[in-house]
Every structure is written in structure tokens, then in C-alpha cells.
Amino acid sequence: MATTSKQYKAIGEDLWKSRTDKINSELFALTYGALVVQLIQDYEDYAEVNKQLEKMGYNIGTRLIEDFLARSSLGRCSDFREVGEVVAKVGFKSFLNITPTVTHSSAPPPSSRSTSAAQQSGVPGSSFILTLDENPLAEFVELPDEALEGGLWFSNVLCGVLRGTLEMVQMQVQVDFLSDALRGDESTEIRVTLLKYLEEEVPVGDD
Predict the structure, then answer these.
(1) What does each C-alpha distance from 75 to 45, 71, 99, 100, 107 come to in angstroms?
(2) What residues pair up with 132 in beta bridges, in sequence order?
(3) pLDDT by residue for the chain (207 residues), tens digit each?
(4) Which of 54, 77, 125, 127 could form a cystine bridge with 107, CB 3.0-4.6 A?
(5) Largest CA distance in the chain
(6) Considering the entire predicted model, what is its pTM?
């Protein structure tokens, strides 16, 4: 039987409550802020800082997925819509104790033939948007005008985490910030777009 949205939310809450290695949220936010400041000093280029944050997040994501799968005992998602539900209600909740709102978007149909949303939700071009009502990384942060004008995405590490995590379960995705409350936008939104499903790699020597 398919897992419902409410059930995913309950799983995420249980995983968060059972974590024994929680870090103080203020310390977490201040430590991350210090990292971003150091990158800005090192590179003096906000576009490069965005790249470095994404790369760091990717490396974190490729490692987090093992812990996530082991603790959640969730199986493979049936389509990309379900991926969005798991990411928002289980993934974010179990690691950051927040539950973004998820909005799904199907891929445009490849031809004039009508295709149901359910059929489209597992094909390249499908996407979902995560709206963060709160962002633990951005507590106590106010971006200077220079950073705003330079195009800094302060929490870009999250994009990398999502890309790295999903790549480890055979999904190549593109992850971008659409808006950020730190930049004066009304909300903080991240879009995750499915590019393609990756082939399972067969170890050398195995047929």
C-alpha cells in the first residue's frame, strides 16, 4: 500500500525525535555562517562562493543518504512526486527539524497526445518546489548590500545536498534557489528538476 503524506510526516518526526546526535541550532547556524564568511574572504567572488557551497553540499549529500536509508527503512520511490514528499517530510525533518511545503510540477508532454499527471511525474522535466517557512542556516543572518548585488545564495549548500543525495539513488537532478527571504523575497524556494535516471553501475568484472 502506498505511503501517504501524513505517514511520511510521521516518519520524519519519529526520526528527528530518535536522533541522539542533535546539534544546537544556534551553534549550527553560527558555524555555517562563519564558513560562508571564510569562503567570501578566500574567493572574493560570490558566484564562486555559490559553486563552492554547492560542491560542499554535494559531498555531504553523498554521505548522508546511507544514514538516511538505514534509519528510515524506506524503499525506492515509485515516481518523482513521491521523491518530493520524502525529501520534504522525511529528509528535511529528520536532519534539520523543518518540513518545507512541497509543490509538484509535471513535465510538459512530449507530443500533443494527452498524458496524465501521474504518468508524467516520473519522466525527465518533472520537478517540485520546496518552500521553506524557516531556514536554520539563515538564523541571525542579514546579508550586506554587496552580497545581495553579487548574487550570493547564502544557503546554496542545501542545493548540493539534494543533488548529491538523489544522485546516490540514481537520479540526476538540477537544484536551484528560486528565491530567498534573506534577499528580500517573500519566501525561500528551492526547485528540484529531474534530468534523467542513472543506470545502476555494475562493478568491474561482474556481468
Answers:
(1) 41, 12, 20, 22, 24
(2) 188
(3) 356 777 766 665 665 566 655 566 788 888 999 999 999 999 999 999 999 999 999 999 999 899 888 888 888 888 999 999 999 998 998 888 899 999 998 766 554 444 444 445 567 789 999 999 999 999 889 999 999 999 999 999 999 999 999 999 999 999 999 999 999 999 999 999 999 999 865 555 554
(4) 125
(5) 57
(6) 0.84
